[in-house]
Amino acid sequence: MTNLQSLRGMIDLLPSQAERWQKVEALARNHFRRAGLGEIRTPLIEHTELFSRGIGETTDVVGKEMYSFIDRGDRSCTLRPEGTASVVRSVIQNGLLSQGPQRLWYMGPMFRYERPQAGRQRQFHQIGAEFFGLSSEISDAEIISIAWDFLNDLGLQELTLEINSLGTTEDRKKYRENLVAWLENFSEQLDDQSLKQLKQNPLRILDSKKAHIQELLNGAPMIGEVLCQRSQDRFLNIQSILNSLGIPFTINQKLVRGLDYYCHTAFEITSKQLGAQATVCGGGRYDGLVEQLGGPATPSIGWAIGLERLLILLSEDYFKKEVPEVYIVNKGCKAQIEALKLARDLRKSNFLVDIDYSGSAFSKQFKRANRSNASWAVVIGDQELLQKEVRLKSLKGETIDPGEHFVKISDLNQIIERLRS
RNA sequence: GCGGGCGUCGCCAAGUGGUUAAGGCAGCGGCUUGUGGCGCCGCUAUUCGGGGGUUCGACUCCCCUCGCUCGCCCCA
User: How do residues A148-172 score in pLDDT, each as one tens digit?
Assistant: First the structure.
């Protein structure tokens, strides 16, 4: 490698792609605005401790995927691997929780040191929503519905919403014991991977992709069986609200999610079109996290959408390329200055304007004008300068010569009027 | 971190040991020194991701390295 390249798993977004991103981002903003959420922007770098305490020491994200470094003040810092911990920190630090429930959203890059593959980069982007101070089942359903509506508004097909309940901390602890006890009877059938997980994070075995493990699990105890009455009621209530909203879902008792902080509701929206990294949106309730990070006990729930994956799902024809409305054909130094002046004026009036810089033959410039898909060519050359005019020529329509208009260059209003006709 | 596939012009792509590395798109110039969409003609890789080796000779074989890609792990 002689030339400098971007770091592995960190990609450039070129104009054609950036346009697509902007469209998706704008739609997300629109959905959040209508749902009354406020934007929060937190730093990309935090104390390492925020993530190790917030996400969980035993998770892979913390254990082997963080971009950490020691800064010049001898602090251990980490590029955020996800958004929730930072938002929780901010909400505590800035005292927002004493101002009533908070309904927030964020958007931006996250960093995880993993091996890149389809829909997974080391610098990737998430859009997320978080509710604080709301414990009602309605809030679970609402935040899910915001994600669901947004994804559907993008025209995505074949989305599946899966939900599960992880219950309270006690429920989860009890289930963990049951599951470990049961799995230990079959330890000879478990592979190295699962045996390791059995010690560190047994619930994770549930979403193993290995067929023989899944087969074995068919007989395993499920978390639904150990949920306390309140947890069960809560889960049933959410299902009935989702039904009322007409949002289709399936219950997946093996859906546990990787981060330590989840409790009660856990959910995922997946797409079959994505291959191995199928999760577009993942989230859940994390009632204990705020307190764990030093804030007041606060019920909380949130989700995150992976933008790279989302963009994979959007078909090409969802994005229409923006095209210049006006292409200014010109020749000569003086004409070029006039062209730029006119371009500025037209842009102030919201026209999309391209100027030809080549100085080449008019026939060439017209070819380019035509290829740019502009509706109008505006011609400024020696003759026009002499007459203090511009020539407006329509590039649309079947005929090659649909007529031209000469307008005084000083009469901007008339130029605009013609272009709008 | 582990395993499989791949890397030839801005993009797509032929070539798989032997004289000048096809072709298409895009770009530039011309046919037409001031008027477009078609057509025709020309130009555009001293070089095959990078480095080393084998060979009289390598884009083609071997090794290393970088990157991409698919899967595992994990997650959005």
Answer: 999 999 988 789 999 999 999 899 9
